[in-house]
Amino acid sequence: MPTIKAAIVTVTPLQQNCTLIWDEESKKGAVIDPGGDVARIRDVIGEAGMEPEKILLTHGHIDHAGGAAELKQMLGIPIEGPHRADKFLLDSLAETGADYGIANARNVETDLWLDEGDRVMIGPFAFDVAHCPGHTPGHVVFINSELGIAQVGDVLFKGSIGRTDFPYGDQDALIEAIKSKLLPLKDELAFICGHGPPSTIGEERAGNPFLV
């Protein structure tokens, strides 16, 4: 049976979790949310011995997508995601990067927009795409229920949820997305989030103060 591996590379002054996911046997996988510090991401890719086939974006914020164009050019691989509702964020990454002190940020043109119900392949593993707006309009998450793993970006955190105090934020939509698309998953499903430590669905269902 294929074995899935994952590694987190903390990038940008905002301490964002860029996630590498790959198949241990074939070494093929994906880079999720390369927000910056691309040289560091490349070094960890080499240390892991993985072969990225694509870049996946959960949403268009600078700390998640600011290094995607540079990494795409460096590795010669496509970018998939997020949902097209985040195009306005991807179109302004260079300007936003200057505001946040994130060097070399470039605007991103994705190769494939993602929608609710799509599937993306990470090596031999199929991940379901769920559109979870609220933090940003086009935020998506990647879920493999069979393997019990997900990457949820800035939708859900250990003990918290994503910020919605942006002009385009919507806390009601975010809570609805979490309750309808994430909390029904099995308790033991582990998720990697955009900042901070991983958690499980069961732990957040039982004790997350924003959801109880």
Give a written overview of the molecule.
The protein has about 210 residues and is α+β, with helices and mostly antiparallel strands. The longest helix has 12 residues.
Number of helices: 7
The CATH class, by name, is Alpha Beta
In terms of structural class, how would the helical and strand content be classed? Answer: alpha+beta
CATH homology superfamily name: Ribonuclease Z/Hydroxyacylglutathione hydrolase-like
Count every beta strand, where a strand is a DSSP E run of 2 or more residues: 13
Give the CATH architecture.
Answer: 4-Layer Sandwich
Percent strand equals 25-35%
CATH topology (fold) name? Metallo-beta-lactamase, Chain A
Question: What is the share of helical residues?
Answer: 25-40%
Q: How many independent structural domains? A: 1
Elements, N to C (H/E): EEEHEHHEHHEEEEEEHEEH
In brief, what are we looking at here?
The protein has 212 residues and is α+β, with helices and mostly antiparallel strands. It has seven helices and 13 strands.
Secondary-structure map with pairings?
Elements: E1 4-11, E2 16-23, E3 28-32, H1 38-48, E4 51-56, H2 62-65, H3 68-75, E5 79-80, H4 87-90, H5 93-100, E6 119-122, E7 125-131, E8 140-144, E9 149-151, E10 156-157, E11 160-161, H6 171-182, E12 190-192, E13 199-200, H7 201-207
Parallel strand pairs: 3-4, 4-5, 9-12
Antiparallel strand pairs: 1-2, 2-3, 6-7, 7-8, 8-9, 10-11, 12-13
